[in-house]
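During the no-cost extension, the postdoctoral fellow (Dr. R.K.) reprocessed legacy sequence entries with the updated structure-token encoder. One reprocessed record is reproduced below for audit purposes.
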Amino acid sequence: MGAYILRRLLLMIPTIIGIMAVNFVIIQFAPGGPVEKVIAQLTGTDVSATARISGGSGDLGGGQSASQGGGAESSSKYRGAQGLDPEFIKDLEKQFGFDKPPLERFGRMLWNYARFDFGESYFRDIAVVDLVIEKMPVSISLGLWMTLISYLISIPLGIRKAVTDGSRFDVWTSAVIVVGYAIPGFLFAVLLIVLFAGGSFFDWFPLRGLFSDNWDTLSWGEKILDYFWHLALPLTAMALSAFATTTLLTKNSFLDEIRKQYVVTARAKGLSEREVLYRHVFRNAMLIIVAGFPGAFISSFFAGSLLIETIFSLDGLGLLGFESVINRDYPVIFATLFIFSLMGLLVGLISDLTYTWIDPRIDFESREV
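Re-encoded structure tokens follow.
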């Protein structure tokens, strides 16, 4: 097992380099950039309200103005740069590192990331690591609790549906699950707000944030209740589609195992249905559920929370990533991409190791990676 873990860890290096390289190339051909972002802010054509110009090594307010001459030279490269001093444009390029060729920038970025040095945000006066840590609690709360609740409900329900396959219980629960899966999470979130967050009917739940304004004055018990009170609607909206997917996956996995010959043999030996289900079927059927856990966690942690965070005004990683793309904040974009990719690969390795814990018969040493 040690050799297998070492191979997987070594394979993560070219995998991450490939991910970063593909996205770096895409960024090179994407229209716009941080220099054009600053130009748009200076000329009053920027519509983003979230970006803030930080005072880096190239002082953006260093006496330059849109009325200075020399715009003919700069306008050929950056849209909207007419009238700006070419030296000012060069200072901007130097501040953002665009005075160096792309290959050198990419190599330097990889070297820094290998040392977990992610630099500072272009438009926020804060280190990228500090920014990610600041937003992490919201996304962790949504991702972990959503995955936990989804599995705690979906697995027992899926097992029950497999055991009672074709019964009225199975039919009507399947109908509810399919309808729930068909409703987009963000649309369900809007419906919850209208119904329970002061929209048109009841005002039972808060609409923004994870904590109340009087958080510091609450006791520990009151803080726990306040925390889950704020999470109730976002988690309900996020868990809907994951709940349906995991339930049907569990049912189909158990149905496939129940119909195998070893189950017939176990019943013929006089074992009860409960013993057959949990001593024999459960271990084999749960393998596919374990395999889907990393994807479910990563999806809920990073991808599925974007719209939910926006709708419920939760300042997490999903919203941070979206704003970084809009604002062309490349250090935040690539740093979060690197961190998320690394976490995804590590979680995948942990999932494989969990296979061996559930079923010791699985031996990853006997096969090639």
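The longest helix spans residues 220-258. DSSP finds 14 helices and no strands in the chain. The remaining legacy entries will be reprocessed before the final report is submitted.
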